[in-house]
Design brief:
56 residues; mainly alpha
């Protein structure tokens, strides 16, 4: 019998999807930040959420 193939399971799967509408100016700043710091838009959103929650 061959071993199971596919992606390995992760400890915290990311199954929740969050959507937000932003204006063109905010999007342009976000895209610029992502290019300069080589991170995805999703990662920037996660960083922002963590930053807000740490303030409380």
């Amino acid at each position: 019998m061959s071993p199971r193939t596919g992606r390995p399971k992760v400890d915290k799967p990311k199954t929740i999807e969050v959507k937000a509408r932003i204006d063109e100016e905010t999007n342009a700043m976000l895209v610029k930040y992502c290019k300069e710091h080589q991170v995805s838009r999703t990662e920037v959103v996660r960083m922002g959420i963590e930053k807000v929650l740490k303030k409380e």
